[in-house]
Amino acid sequence: MAESKRDYYEVLGVDKSADEAAIKRAYRSLAKKYHPDVNPGDKEAEQKFKEVNEAYAVLSDAEKKAKYDQFGHAAFEAGGGGGYGGFGGFGDMDFDISDIFSSFFGGGMGGGSTRRGPVRGEDITVRLTLSFEEAVFGVKKEISYQRIQKCAECSGSGAAKGTSPKTCPTCGGSGRIRVQQRTPLGIMQTQKACDACRGTGKIVEKPCESCRGNGYVRVTKKLDVSIPAGIDDGQRVVLSGQGSEGREGGPAGDLYIYVNVRPHAVFERDGYDIYCEVPISFTEAALGAEIDIPTLEGTEMYQIKEGTQTGTTFTIRDKGVPVVNSKRRGNLHITVKVEVPKNLNSEQKDLLRKFAESCGEGETGGNRKNFFKRFFK
Known about the structure:
This protein is an alpha+beta fold.
């Protein structure tokens, strides 16, 4: 009887001023709480679940809600709708309960909530090996890769030339069908992918021979790619929209080009700076000299000071690697290595001994004596 029924707003825990979104949120929360799968064997939870669904079936329907607000439960009694069964009963509710189950249990009730729509194409990755100079100064390269794109023969329809896909008569082109399942709670209505068209909404009666009805084919594409000056090993160039084509009007994926750079025979790179070791003679180090040094553009002259020690590093600004998409450049660092002469003849050895004596080194090595004095202080 109507008198024994709880107020529907009270059942869902919402005010009479609650909008459609608030009512739906309240229903989802309570349906999850009292669902039989969550409370197996709990008769009280089962009863509350029915009560919640009954309240939602009325308050989620604008026409039924208006009648309920005016007449209360009497609106659905005999002459006004026939009580709980009068508005269709739990087994014949006109909302899709699989929508609720999909949010709780990842699809539930065998229907899932997959919807057709634009699908973005896959991204593609290729690797490109460059010489040190190509990476430093930039280069244009032709690359070859495979991508998925629409079949040219059927323009992506999958149907043979002169024919076209037909709307699936089973699902009416929606790709989904409604099914009813009898449960201890009554007959529940859910959705699933259409078996006839595999969820596409279309039937290809005569498949295209080129793509075998798929609508898409794998092709080899060649592309001229500009690699920017200054790119480094392990970095990438991204070409938007050059990946596989999308489906159902979706955008194409992107092409990712990862760069490998071969090492250089002379230079080592760290960021945008480059490093190089240059040998100099003992005489050049002692007296100073103008020496040839390597740069990225070729050799040039550089003046080193007299008394330069081995391991000394000189920095030449703006002679390094160009900064990507910039007019700036890194620096060139030259480290000198003094080469000790070998295979001296007797005359050369005598001259060096005289030189050492003139410097106060003598046979005992003056500099080394001073070092040990400091060491044992």
